[in-house]
Design a protein that fits this description.
Strand order of the largest sheet: 1-5-4-3-2-6-7-8
Structural class: mainly beta
Low-confidence stretches: none
Strand content: over 45%
Radius of gyration: 15 Å
Mean pLDDT: 93
Amino acid sequence: MEIEKKYRIKKLPENLETYTCLDIEQGYLCIKPVVRIRKMNEEYILTYKSKTPLQESQYHTKISNEVELPLTESSYIHLREKVDGNLIQKKRYLIPLENGLKVELDVFGGHLKGLIFAEVEFHSVEAATGFIPPDWFGEDVSLDKRFNNSYLSQVDEVSNI
């Protein structure tokens, strides 16, 4: 199960270049349910996400079932040609927080250049609901569908968000 909160960013943290950075390209073969392919540096992944019976709005947290399977590079390239919508390109910075939590700060390129937001994943719904974000985080957009990557793959530019 994936339990996460997503935030706009008020300002980028200092020394961003000191954190681990992943180059990500991803596309969607289906968005209901979500079937995604992703290239993350030299790793290739197929992901299936589906809803859970938990009420997201009750916890103001995004909650989904998620299964990830490894792909070969050739399988990824083959499936890449079948993507619906636009490929998403982004740099993901991994920024540690207290209590073993980690911020995944996504800085988008390509057709979404200029879009930046952060996600934090939690081990429980209680941890997510009790989370106090750092000062550099902005508005909580966890349940705003416009910030789902599957939605973003269907828009042509940031001004459509």
